[in-house]
Structure formats: C-alpha cells, structure tokens
Amino acid sequence: MSDKIIYARDDNYLIVRLRDGDDFFETLLSLLKKEDIKSAVLVSSVGMMRDVELGWFSGEEYIKKSFEEPMELLSLTGSVNETEEGKIFLHLHAVLGSSDLTTAGGHLFKATVHQTNELVFLLPTNIYLKRLREGEGLLRLFPERKK
C-alpha cells in the first residue's frame, strides 16, 4: 500500500492514480473523505485489479464470485454518493478481462490494485447525489439540485 495518493483536483474533476497493492476501496474512500467529496461520477478508468469480488443481484441477494488473479480493468462505472447516515458510498460496476481473454462483470465489492488504476471523476457543482433505502432495503440514487 502506498503512503501518498497521487491525485489532482479542481472544481470539476478529481483525477487519481492508485498504486500496486492499494486496497481500492480503502484508499479511494480515504481520499474522498480528505477532499470532502460526497458526490461524483466516475467517467474514466483504466488499469488492473486482483483479489476482486464481483456480485450479481438476484432480486433478493447478491451472488458473489472472487477472482484472485490479476485482471485488466476494461470498464468501471458508477458514482460516489452520501447515505442518509452520512457515509460515503461507492456504487461501482466493473468489467474485468482475464489472461485467456474472457470477461467477468458485476457490482464491485472488493479489489486490490494491480500495477495501477487511473480514475477520472466528474464533480457535479450543482447536483447532490445521495443514496436512500427504498422498498426492499437497497440503497437507491436520489439526485437533487443543491440549494
């Protein structure tokens, strides 16, 4: 795990490079907290991951599968939101490619950076992205204009 996160930020974007061995969620959440970012949209991502856990929602529960080997990060999309409890929530879906050129995708629950991850977030200036529990208890997106 790296000691210092490599990133740059302005009013509209947060651009981050995570290093080999970084816990993806722990490192990213630490940076978001440090920068007081509660709403963001992931618009670009490249790199590799290992020790990944992906999930598929059956309508009642997540069916999870783990992948230990390094995999190419082919797509990673989603958003940064604040829950009603005030916690930062990362809602991310990934598509990863393995060495035999097959892919796996789903809700990203866990990952370790392999080699590097390069991420670009759009920071909405007038829209707040929050997550609230609805219906069956899942966290749903409720965007609203900032006042």
Automatic annotation (TrEMBL):
Domain PPC: 8-145
Domain of life from the UniProt record: Bacteria
Keywords: DNA-binding
GO molecular function terms attached to this record: DNA binding
InterPro entries xrefs: PPC_dom
One Pfam family in the UniProt entry: PCC
Protein name according to UniProt: DNA-binding protein
Matches recorded under CDD domains: DUF296
DNA-binding among keywords: yes
